[in-house]
Amino acid sequence: MAADLGSDEHSWAWSVVDAVGPIADRDVRWNGTVAVGITPGRDTAVSRLHSPQPYLILPEHHADTIGEAYARQAATAPRDESPTAAQDRWSALVDATGSMTSQVVRMTGPLPDLTDPQAYPEVAFDDGLGDVWTTPKRLAAVWQESDSAQLMLHDDVPSPSFAYAGTEPNASAVRDVIAEIARQQGREATPADYSVISDELIQLPPDRRWDAVIDSAGAVNGVRSDVSRYQLVETLRRDFLTAVEQGNPGSGTPDSAAARAVRAVAAEPLDARLSAMTRDPALAPVTPGRTPGSDGASVRPQRPGDSAVRRSPRSGHARDGRR
């Protein structure tokens, strides 16, 4: 069901759109429609990814949160509320604002270069990117510039927080991808990495983000050279989607499925490759008097300065080559 133009739900969503655009410093590709209470399937999500102007989705529980907040604001008499109840109401409104912010910022990115009816990896990665982009600092800024700031004040709750976890496992999988990029560059990821890298990736077409991940992960040690770039992209796409479908086992650690998907496309560190080379029998130096692959069989080494042609006892030739 689409929210009516001018309804509380539509007005609130519009205020979030108006807030996110300037914060991201990009235009929002929204068609003006807010669909309430729907859960899109995979194919619908792919269609929205390719839409020049997609609609926004307001889940039923978020619509209830927004409706209750506007009703409380319109009440002529204040309602008694315990600190715990107020904190729960704050958390619900933060979650609704974070979810809408994540959707809106994804609409500031470009369309895919290619139309792919099975762009399920791109949808999962796009969803996670929006969640990771919605940092506490950005969410607080969106809150302040949207109607959410009028629906609840900081003073209304004991602990006003703007933490937004996002939708799992997409959000954690993208966080693990960014964390592994940082590790491949020789450091641990910082809050700035999640903020900056998510914003940079959102500005790329969804089907070109895999190349950017591969290049970033291989910035120090290079990328695997034993397979083509096309194969690397397809491997990363497949492994990331598998990680999400399996719930991203090991989430938040270097052994998570999403982190391992990134490691699989990056070359080993140079010192590891050099170490492997020193253990390769084919690259071992030839021992004088031995031939590679001779399994230790010896031949008599030639003495320095002895360049004469020696005659085999059975050759019938003299040392100078004459009979």
What is the spatial order of strands in the main beta sheet? 1-2
Order of helices and strands: HEHEHHHHHHHHHHH
- Biggest sheet features: 2 strands, parallel
Number of helices: 13
The proportion of residues in beta strands is: under 5%
Helix content: 40-55%
The count of DSSP E runs of length 2 or more, i.e. the number of strands, is 2
Q: How far apart lie the N and C ends?
A: 105 Å
Query: Segments where pLDDT lies below 50 for 5+ residues?
Result: 271-278, 294-323
Shape designation: globular
Kindly list the characteristics that best describe this protein.
two-stranded parallel sheet, 323 residues, mainly alpha, 2% strand, single chain
What does this structure look like?
It is globular, with a radius of gyration of 31 Å. The relative contact order is 0.10. Helix 2 (42-50) links the parallel strand 1 and strand 2 (56-58). The protein is mostly helical and 323 residues long. Helix 5 packs across helix 9 and helix 8 runs parallel beside helix 12. A two-stranded parallel ribbon has the order 1-2. The protein has 2 domains: 1-74 and 84-160, no CATH class; 168-278, no CATH class. The model is unreliable at 271-278 and 294-323 (pLDDT under 50). The chain is built from 13 helices and 2 strands; from the N terminus they run H-E-H-E-H-H-H-H-H-H-H-H-H-H-H.
